[in-house]
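User: Hi! I have a protein structure encoded as tokens and I'd like to know what sequence might fold into it. I'm fairly new to this, so please keep things simple.
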């Protein structure tokens, strides 16, 4: 078993570094889950290229051991170095903290930081498997054993990271621990087990010891424009409290969530909906627990005020740094620790006003409060004249197309639930929805009149501010812009259109050319998306009689399986985030569960003793059953979306089980495809790298297209249907070519 320690180390280090990089890049990319596509695509692309490079080196280099040890040592230095570069990447590109990064910059930063370590990991897997094969005198099942041990390492890493490392170690300590293990692998390769293990353990201890200074230095450089008061990780993301010029700023995953004090924004969020309601006795505030918001709300005749905060640690931080003691809070006020959506589902209370005081839906975490499904839940808890209020970015004079699309998407979503929706073009754009039929009077004079009647004193929202923003011309300009963009999609939990429009809005400033490319791809008709698998089927069928097509049919199956497998992982992560809001913590659990399934599938292939045509039929059978997995996902997503079962513990903890099933199919596919290529060949050293590389390149394509384009444009359910069609065409190609492939094998 000693020789299989190397692929275990590769798998363990790969998942640790992948998840840590993903979490850190999420902070750099302001928490936008669409950035997962860039992260995963670059990671998988260079992993696949590393597999191809390893296949080439296996055939050209007689001495694999020396080159394998070299790349182990090189990777041990790359892992912490790339984490440091991720932390300072904004400084290198001169992008201030709090400023949204464009999509093109997301891809470039991912490319620069992930290419080298991912290439080394893909290369090392192929080299290590070949080294083990030579030591075992060419045993053909060595690639399967290596694949299993790599999966075991990744599975163990996923659960250890989530339940042990994340709770007790910072990012640099975890990464340096992974680097120490990789150094241990290099020592074993070069110096043997007896000498290599003590050297590797010493290096691991030394690297972990150096981690805290690197953590502190990188944070100071990352937030060089601020004085860091607090930096911590929670289940929902990375929280940073930073001070600059007397203002305390709160960042979540790199995105500015709140500032203390910020009276102007606070007053413009709180007062419009409360002034429009004749008697706002009960108020629910979602997303803000700052003292300024509470004080402004309680200037109205409010008898009960409840405020929910998704991340309980924010409440403690805001109380600490705003210098509020629990005794200072009014008796009318109650903190609700937890998710606002979940609270509304369980609460029997009716509210006069619900205020959503959150940023625009740049992330799925925030987008959950801007969807048709949430609006339906909110209306159940509003009184007869109840109001729901939320905010979006404001316009200078005339709104851009991107901003108009974002506003119109949310407005259409509200209109599905509420008969009346008004839009107020103030410093931010405010949307107020109500179930009452009689028109809401929202002229400037109506606001100032109620302010005087209630004797409310304000700093900014007054008789000068209100007429300045709420002019007839501004309202007409906004209404005209919204009418021009009426073709936008409404926003749903599992079809986060508003998140994509928000990304468009920021990309118009940061990367306009890249935005145009994405817009072109977004304009592809849905019917065209469903036709693409059939077009691909026609293309490959036309090549059926070519001699090289016998191998292409198997590689086609492997590539689209990789595409599908990464799609299954991403759909599970995005669905979990859309429902529960804390996939930041569960990413490693889902990845680890997927790798557990992969190991189980690979172990099952060891019992398959058939050869030739029968072996190919097993590959064909696996491809057939993969068709049904996305159909199962569709059924589950529909049930969760339309039935109130999402918060049943069995449903929540069912996500890792679904990941195990997805990984199981991938674990079956790779060993079968590799054995098909190895059969009948004296030198099969390149087959592992070839199949491994095609698998990762298919996964790269899936990460690139599914997360950043297909899911926002078509939704999780339709994307799952497309993946089912893709696998159906792959199965049909294998079925058509069964006899030809049998001849090729025999």
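Assistant: Happy to help. Inverse folding works backwards from shape to sequence: for each of the 746 positions I chose a residue that suits the local structure. Here it is:
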């Amino acid at each position: 078993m000693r020789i299989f320690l190397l692929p275990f180390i590769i798998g363990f280090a790969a998942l640790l570094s992948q998840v840590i990089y993903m979490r850190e890049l999420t902070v750099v990319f302001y928490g936008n889950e669409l950035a997962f596509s860039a992260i995963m695509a670059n990671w998988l692309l260079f992993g696949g290229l590393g597999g191809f490079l390893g296949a080439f080196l296996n055939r050209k280099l007689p001495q694999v051991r020396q080159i394998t040890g070299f790349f182990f040592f090189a990777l041990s230095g790359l892992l912490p170095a790339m984490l440091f570069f991720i932390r300072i990447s904004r400084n290198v590109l001169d992008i201030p903290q709090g400023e949204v990064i464009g999509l093109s910059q997301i891809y470039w930063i991912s490319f620069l930081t992930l290419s080298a370590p991912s290439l080394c990991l893909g290369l090392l897997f192929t080299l290590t498997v070949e080294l083990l094969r030579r030591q075992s005198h060419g045993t053909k099942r060595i690639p399967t054993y290596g694949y299993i041990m790599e999966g075991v390492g990744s599975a163990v890493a996923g659960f250890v990271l989530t339940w042990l490392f994340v709770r007790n170690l910072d990012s640099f300590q975890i990464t340096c621990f992974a680097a120490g293990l990789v150094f241990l692998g290099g020592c074993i390769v070069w110096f043997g087990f007896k000498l290599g293990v003590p050297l590797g353990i010493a290096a691991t201890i030394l690297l972990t010891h150096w981690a805290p200074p690197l953590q502190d230095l990188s944070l100071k450089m990352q937030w060089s424009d601020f004085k860091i008061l607090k930096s911590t990780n929670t289940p929902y993301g990375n929280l940073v409290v930073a001070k600059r010029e007397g203002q305390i700023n709160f960042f979540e995953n790199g995105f500015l969530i709140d500032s203390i004090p910020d009276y102007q924004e606070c007053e413009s969020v709180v007062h419009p909906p409360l002034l429009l309601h004749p008697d706002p006795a009960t108020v629910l505030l979602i997303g803000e627990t700052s003292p300024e918001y509470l004080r402004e709300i309680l200037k109205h005749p409010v008898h009960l005020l409840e405020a929910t905060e998704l991340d309980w640690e924010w409440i403690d931080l805001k109380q600490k740094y705003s210098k509020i003691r629990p005794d200072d809070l009014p008796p009318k006020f109650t903190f609700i620790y937890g998710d606002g959506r979940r609270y509304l589902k369980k609460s029997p209370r009716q509210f006069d006003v619900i205020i959503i005081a959150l940023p625009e839906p740049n992330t799925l975490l925030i987008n959950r409060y801007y969807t048709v499904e949430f609006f339906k839940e909110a209306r159940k808890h509003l009184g007869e004249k109840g109001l729901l209020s939320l905010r979006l970015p404001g316009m200078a004079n005339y709104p851009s197309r991107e901003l108009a699309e974002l506003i119109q998407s949310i407005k259409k979503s509200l209109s599905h639930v509420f008969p009346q929706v008004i839009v107020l073009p103030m410093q931010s754009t405010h949307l107020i929805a109500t179930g009452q039929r009689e028109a809401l009077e929202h002229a400037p004079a109506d606001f100032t009149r109620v302010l005087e009647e209630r004797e409310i004193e304000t700093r900014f929202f007054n008789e000068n501010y209100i007429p300045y923003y709420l002019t007839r011309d501004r309202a007409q300009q906004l209404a005209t812009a919204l009418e021009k963009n009426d073709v936008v999609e409404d926003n749903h939990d599992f079809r986060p259109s508003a998140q994509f429009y928000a990304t468009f809005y920021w990309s118009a400033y940061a990367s306009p050319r890249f935005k145009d490319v994405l817009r072109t791809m977004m304009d592809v008709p849905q019917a065209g998306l469903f036709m693409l698998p059939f077009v691909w089927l026609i293309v490959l069928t036309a090549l059926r009689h070519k001699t090289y097509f016998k191998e292409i049919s198997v590689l086609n199956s492997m590539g689209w399986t990789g595409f599908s497998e990464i799609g299954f992982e991403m759909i599970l992560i995005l669905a979990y985030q859309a429902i529960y809001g804390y996939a930041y913590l569960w990413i490693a659990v889902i990845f680890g569960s997927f790798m557990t399934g992969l190991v189980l599938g690979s172990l099952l292939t060891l019992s398959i003793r058939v050869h030739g045509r029968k072996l190919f039929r097993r590959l064909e059978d696996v491809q057939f059953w993969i068709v049904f997995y996305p159909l199962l996902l569709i059924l589950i997503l529909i049930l969760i979306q339309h039935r109130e079962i999402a918060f049943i513990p069995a449903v929540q903890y069912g996500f890792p089980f679904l990941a195990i099933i997805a990984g199981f199919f991938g674990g079956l596919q790779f060993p079968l495809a590799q054995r098909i290529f190895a059969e009948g060949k004296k030198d099969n050293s390149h087959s592992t790298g070839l199949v491994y590389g095609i698998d990762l390149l298919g996964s790269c394509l899936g990460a690139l297209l599914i997360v950043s384009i297909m899911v926002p444009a078509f939704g999780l359910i339709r994307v799952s249907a497309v993946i089912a069609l893709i696998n159906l065409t792959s199965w049909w190609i294998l079925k058509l070519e069964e006899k030809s492939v049998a001849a090729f094998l025999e």
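A useful reference point when you look it over: The domain at 524-746 is CATH 1.20.1250 (Growth Hormone; Chain: A;). Feel free to ask if any position seems puzzling.
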